[in-house]
Amino acid sequence: MPTDDRIASLLQLKQPIVQGPFGGGISTVNLTASVSNLGGLGSFGAHILTPSEIAETSKAISASTTAAFALNLWVEDHDPEALTLSDDAYEASAAQFRPYYDELGLELPKRPTRFHESFEDQVEAILEVRPPALSFVFGIPSTKVLTACKQRGIATIGAATNVAEAQALDHAGVDAIVATGFEAGGHRPSFLKRAESSLMSTSSLVQTAAARIDTPLIAAGGIVDAIGVAASRVLGASAAQLGTAFLACDESGTSDANRKILFDRDAVAETTLTRTYTGRLARGVRNRLIEELERPDRQIAPFPVQAWFVAPLKKASTEANRTDLTSLYAGQSAPNLKHRNVATLMDALSSSLGTNSAAV
Ligand SMILES: Cc1cc2nc3c(=O)[nH]c(=O)nc-3n(C[C@H](O)[C@H](O)[C@H](O)COP(=O)(O)O)c2cc1C
């Protein structure tokens, strides 16, 4: 069976493996550089960083690896409803969060002028520091930005949750497309339709997109071992992107309590799609925060307003070693997680067909 090695050639990878970027402060320079140094594509989720933090991060990764890596941004930085949010709606959200802030001894945050960094400013920083690759979710950057990346030798990697999005990215001329199935941990980065209407599995999305577009595909969602990587390549992907499996590694910035849950097979046996964490649909483990904020009498604020209120809870929960009032991202194959550091995970992924971790 012929395999598609275009992503490995494009980025000079020794393994067709992409470490999925983690936004929200969970990416680390060490994780990104470790994966790149072992022949995969390390990625750093930079969407909450200021332009100067992006420049510093890129330089820090470049100082730790000479291999390719990607910085990752979110193209649509605010839902339209967040841009027109009334003060009353802000206060109504604050009132819903007040009991949790009180319980953790926190002050509710005041309304900021902007809830999230601007994508335009962030991308300027990227063009300035020229990382080997820019990966992005929740939309397609302008032709001007994509052309500027091309001129500077920055490879562009978009993300699709349905075939129409893959075709739009293909038409825009990106270098690679992450085909993200609903199994994936983290957000459903849909941009043409509501995420709830774009719930395709990784295998269906890879097969149907591969039949219609020429841009090489990176399969993402539910892949945690060599069998998953090989299967995605048989279906038509050129590489596989793993998130949850790298999140579980010591090199990631997730909290100890969160990591413990990832290795608790009963706790991760069932994951759920929820807008509770940020206002956008994401997959994680059900906890008290989800149970209570999804009650019919509650309103979930648009992105990034909901994220604005959840972020301080997450920070305080990490410090208090609590998992009930925080986001607990995980993909559907988490019960098969096995490896606790990047070296052993990358080694296991390199075995030709590997051993299915479920059997171990
Ligand atoms: C905690 C967490 C944060 C994530 N943040 C981002 C992000 O900021 N940008 C992005 O493109 N993907 C993000 N993802 C998605 C991953 O990069 C990857 O595509 C996904 O986890 C693959 O599915 P898997 O978890 O089943 O392996 C995130 C995933 C997790 C688990």
Structure overview:
- The protein is of the alpha/beta class.
- It has a single domain, classed as TIM Barrel (Alpha-Beta Barrel).
- Helix content is 39%, strand content 13%.
- The protein has 15 helices and eleven strands.
- Helix 7 links the parallel strand 4 and strand 5.
- Helix 2 runs parallel beside helix 3 (51-64), helix 3 runs parallel beside helix 6 and helix 5 packs parallel to helix 14 (305-320).
- The longest helix is centred in the first third of the chain and has 17 residues, at 87-103.
- The relative contact order is 0.15.
- The structure holds flavin mononucleotide (FMN).
- Flavin mononucleotide is lined by residues 20-23, 26, 45, 47, 72, 135, 137, 159, 180, 183-186, 220-223, 241-245, 247, 329, 331, 333.
Keywords:
binds flavin mononucleotide; about 40% helix; TIM Barrel; 11 strands; three-stranded antiparallel sheet; 15 helices; about 350 residues; globular
Look at the structure and give the mean pLDDT. Answer: 96
Q: Report the helical percentage.
A: 25-40%
Series of secondary-structure elements, N-terminal to C-terminal: HEHEHEHHHEHEHEEHEHEHHEEHHH
Query: What distance lies between the first and last C-alpha atoms, to the nearest angstrom?
Result: 28 Å
Q: Given this structure, which CATH class is correct?
A: Alpha Beta
List the ions, cofactors and other small molecules found in this model.
Answer: flavin mononucleotide
**Mind telling me the C-alpha Rg?**
19 Å
Number of domains: 1
Secondary structure layout plus pairing:
Elements: H1 6-11, E1 17-19, H2 29-37, E2 42-45, H3 51-64, E3 69-74, H4 80-83, H5 87-103, H6 119-129, E4 133-137, H7 143-151, E5 155-160, H8 163-172, E6 176-180, E7 186-187, H9 202-210, E8 217-220, H10 226-235, E9 239-242, H11 244-247, H12 256-262, E10 271-274, E11 282-285, H13 288-293, H14 305-320, H15 342-350
Parallel strand pairs: 1-9, 2-3, 3-4, 4-5, 5-6, 6-8, 8-9
Antiparallel strand pairs: 7-11, 10-11
Residues 20-23, 26, 45, 47, 72, 135, 137, 159, 180, 183-186, 220-223, 241-245, 247, 329, 331, 333 line the site of flavin mononucleotide (FMN).
